[in-house]
Design a protein that fits this description.
heterodimer, A: 155 residues, alpha+beta, five-stranded antiparallel sheet, three-stranded antiparallel sheet, 33% strand, B: 149 residues, six-stranded antiparallel sheet, 2 helices, 46% helix, 29% strand, rod-shaped
């Protein structure tokens, strides 16, 4: 009789331990998933803000008559060229090795992606300039519309 | 007799422990759920800010609601309101133009004639789903010179 009672108590204890363990694992799994989702969302938002805000503020900063131009490069594809007045220098923004990069050089100088400053990661970089002075730039983070106040896009 | 009482107390204590443990699980589950909701809300807000900014640039680049609509319109996602007091455009969760998208960007167009041209004030509201409460809104204004392109 006493033996049966002991066996019952042992099973009861194992049951309690199993319940606690299951609950603990459930919490860890659910917590890890939540954390991953939160960090993923945070990264996506930061990446989106960094790329689109960078493009927006940079283009607006260089917005002058004939300053904004889009060129096509055989290696890197489309290059957004923002000329610095009549200095002969320009900021060039383009995609190299899956990253959006910028460099500052003479307008007639060749691109050197290895020396360029990395802005962020993107699989797409597609700037489009329309006749009415509207610049549309698409990248992984989305699309940003920029109205060139100077309406003086270069060709 | 005394041993029986001890066993009853033990069972009672473990029962109490289980209840406390379940309560903790319940509270933590709610906290995790809330964190997910906040993440989704932050994502929505970031997208809404971008869409509102783009709409503001389009307002600056257009002379009337019809032109604004043509700038925002892709795949038939934008339309001029019947009374021409503004434009509504829709986007999906990836911020892509979509006539059935969950994001609704409402752009009002309030022109005010002056001697030199027209001052256009706009309120841009970005709503999500069927909610009339905007996720993000901003006010902008743009001066259109008489005869300017």
């Amino acid at each position: 009789m006493n033996r049966n009672r002991h066996a019952g108590l042992g099973l009861y204890m194992i049951g309690i331990a199993a319940l606690f363990l299951a609950g603990f694992f459930l919490l860890v799994v659910f917590g890890a998933q939540s954390y991953r989702s939160t960090v993923g969302g945070q990264n996506r938002n930061m990446q989106s803000r960094a790329l689109l805000s960078y493009l927006s503020t940079t283009v607006k900063g260089y917005d002058a008559e004939g300053a904004v131009r889009i060129d096509e490069d055989g290696e890197v594809g489309k290059v957004l060229i923002l000329r610095e007045g009549r200095s002969g220098y320009a900021l060039r923004i383009y995609r190299a090795d899956g990253r959006l990069v910028e460099d500052y050089a003479r307008t007639d100088a060749g691109l050197r992606p290895e020396d360029a400053q990395v802005i962020g990661e993107t699989a797409v970089f597609d700037p489009v300039l329309t006749a009415d002075g509207l610049l549309t730039v698409s990248c992984d983070a989305g699309k940003v519309l920029l109205h060139l106040r100077s309406e003086g896009a270069g060709t | 007799m005394k041993r029986n009482g001890q066993i009853t107390a033990f069972y009672f204590e473990t029962l109490l422990l289980i209840v406390v443990f379940l309560l903790i699980i319940l509270v933590l589950t709610q906290v995790f759920g809330l964190a997910r909701q906040q993440t989704a809300a932050a994502r929505q807000l970031t997208d809404a800010v971008v869409l509102a900014g783009n709409a503001a640039e389009a307002v600056s680049a257009s002379r009337d609601p019809a032109e604004l609509c043509s700038l925002l319109n892709e795949n038939g996602n934008a339309e001029v309101l019947p009374d021409t007091s503004g434009v509504t455009a829709r986007y999906d969760d990836g911020k892509n133009p979509d006539p059935l998208g969950a994001f609704r960007v409402e752009v009002s167009w309030q022109p005010e004639k002056t001697a030199e041209g027209t001052m256009v004030s706009s309120e841009i509201r970005v709503c999500y789903g069927s909610s009339e409460q905007p996720v993000y809104s901003l006010e902008t204004a743009s001066f259109k010179e008489e005869g300017a392109a």
